[in-house]
Queue: 2 jobs
Job 1
Amino acid sequence: MDAAGITWERIARRSRVPLGFAFVAFYLWRARPTLTSILLGLVFILPGLALRALASGHLRKNEELAVSGPYAYTRNPLYLGSLILAAGFVFAGRSWIVAAIAFLILMGIYLPVIKGEEEFLRQKFPEFAEYALAVPRLWPRLRSASAQRVQFSSALYLKHHEYDAALGSAAILGALLAKAIWFAN
């Protein structure tokens, strides 16, 4: 932290959404999709969206520590879902430049954000330390670390506007499909 109280985690947290929109514009410009690459991308995009949707239905932000559903396998299922989703779009877009920049964004923006969020959770929820010992940060474990069987909440899914990820993905896929058809002729 410097004298002004600004940390890279804070900059990363505030810049990730605007940077994401700028990256989508760059992505669509650089993408060279084909129908085959889009289908390959969907193999990752759909599970990434599903994981994000499932995670959002178990998350009660700042109210309680999420340990059920996908949170019993990884501490960051939303980010893991985003990573899988991003991999799908990288495959669909067929651009090494996009792949390299996506990797840099992950390393420079999302990893510091994850670290900062975990520091917040450690301070807010005393049980986080034990949870963090049992559940990996990003790569999921094969067995559930939680005995809790909390049901998915569609109300939470709607509250968190997770459908925006599906709508945004559909729009990007539509643009990729149009670009693939346009350049195939």
Job 2
Amino acid sequence: MRCQVAADALLKKGERYDIVVANSFLHHVPDYLGLITDAASVLNQHGQFFSFQDPLRYDSMGKFDRVFSLAAYASWRVFKGDAVGALRRQIRRARGVYLEDSIHDNAEYHVKRNGVDQLAISRLLEGLGFDCSIESYWSTQSRIFQPVGAALGVENTFALIARKRV
């Protein structure tokens, strides 16, 4: 199912925008490419699409970066009050089992599809007439791991800037 509600409402008004920003939510949207297509359709002739703070596609990350990210997530999760449940979910997901009725699996939709495919987003937007750049960087909820990962140059998150070609 496409996520068209916002784009449809905006197009009915005939309005166009200079910029659309997607801040840290694409990883929760099952059809994020459809949503981005719709968002691009409401941009004016010089419009820009800017997305940031979504997880890199996991298999595009280096092994150290992926392991370090998982360790940071685990350390943060311990203090969220559901460490045992989170560990059980991780073990289940490692076996490839995702539950359609699990609030956790659906809220953390990115785990079902291996992160967010930054290259697929770039290819999509380039096909729609945009010039794109992707910036990878380190980000975690863990106060302990954030400065360490940044100092080590770990990359697990991305920002994408897309400008319409004139």
